[in-house]
Amino acid sequence: MAALGGLPPRIRVVMAANLISSVGTGLVQPFLVLYLTEVRGLPVGTATAVISVIAAASLAGSVAAGRLMDGRSARAAAGAAMTVAAAGTAGFALVTTAWGAVLAGLAYGLAYGAMVSVWNTVIALGAQGEHRATAFGLQFVGLNAGVGLGGVLGGVFASTADPDRFTLLYAGDGLSFLVAGVVLVLAIGRQQAPDPGAGAPAGPRGYRVVLRDRGLLQVLAFTVVLMVVGYGQLESSIPGLVAVEHMDPRTMAWAFVANTCCIVLIQFAAITRISRGGPARLLAGTAGSWALCWLLLLLTTTSARTGFATGLVVTALAVFAVGEALLSVALPTLVNNLADDAVRGRYNGAYSAAMSAGLVIGPLLGGGLLTGGPPWLLASVLGLGCVLCACCALLLGRRLPQARWAASGGAGDPRGAENRRQRSREPGPSEALQKMEAGGTR
């Protein structure tokens, strides 16, 4: 709690908005496929296709939000993202046809990708140095706590025998986005758009200026691969492995409870220490913990005892949580310390798009491994991929320009960020925050 109290008041309000929307997300997140098939009578193939539509649309949403934030304001992007998200999730409540489900998924996916970019950009603009890393970590705690609370409430209230209950759940999710959107827009205030004629160097105004940053491109490539071997499997191949091994269906429920609890406990217990860690070590730790997770899952494929295998799965997802806690601080902090304020929205848009790409590719790879070979092949290949990612993280730490990488450390050397601001003539942290506050609600 001391770490939370040390953050700027505006950032604490932003986190409250994130918590509100996360509770709404938790109300419906576990039930979409079940709802579309059991309540609305759509084929399973259609329901899973909607999940793919959401993931693919989030790519476009990430890119669009980044451009909107840099070209206009974070406030406009936040309001648009939350409104479209509310419309998309409320649309699921009214779905009666396959096309209706696809359209709702398209709207929600666009908004989801935009929201990730918005949250990261707003936090980066409002918090600097070690506070920035702490803010990203605590935002992740709020996300998981909110989704967990919403999941419990949704699980108690949902019933396939009463379709009206699902209608209310999706309406509640939509309402949470509207409330969170109002809070977020008020917290941001009236932000002045960057003036391309004063302070920003001449050059391309689209994503070309972002893609010229070789350091960022290396980080984005690493992000895609790490998502493929890690996050991209969390809600697809890992449950699939449990199903193939004929374990109790409740195994994944307990495993996700353990995962969420560990994330919250780790972040609250060690957020300050994590925030001070170097990004290379944090990212290597993420990949290493996910490799251990896959090793534990590999052992489940060789165990003949059901109870022991169940315990291994629960433990594996608890170990996975360690990597999530480290990643939530390392990657967004690194990306935002590579960025200048004039292009911060596009940097976060590119980062969000890289994550989305990994989340699209991951289930495809995992599904192919799971259906095309024995269960141990999935755990072996992805575990090896995590080991390689750990090595790449350490290599990335050596290859990035030292000043830029040092600026990304938790306590960090402020000279790296200051040098970049001088080269690009961008305003410092206090000036960037003043831009957010200009005319805004306090």
Automatic annotation (TrEMBL):
The keyword Chaperone does not apply. GO terms for molecular function: transmembrane transporter activity. InterPro entries: MFS (IPR011701), MFS_dom (IPR020846), MFS_trans_sf (IPR036259), MFS_Transporters (IPR050171), Tet-R_TetA/multi-R_MdtG-like (IPR001958). It is found in: Cell membrane. Residues 10-404 form the Major facilitator superfamily (MFS) profile domain. Keywords: Cell membrane, Membrane, Transmembrane, Transmembrane helix, Transport. SUPFAM superfamilies: MFS general substrate transporter. PANTHER family: MULTIDRUG RESISTANCE PROTEIN MDTH, RESISTANCE PROTEIN MDTM, PUTATIVE-RELATED-RELATED. This is MFS transporter. It comes from Streptomyces sulfonofaciens.
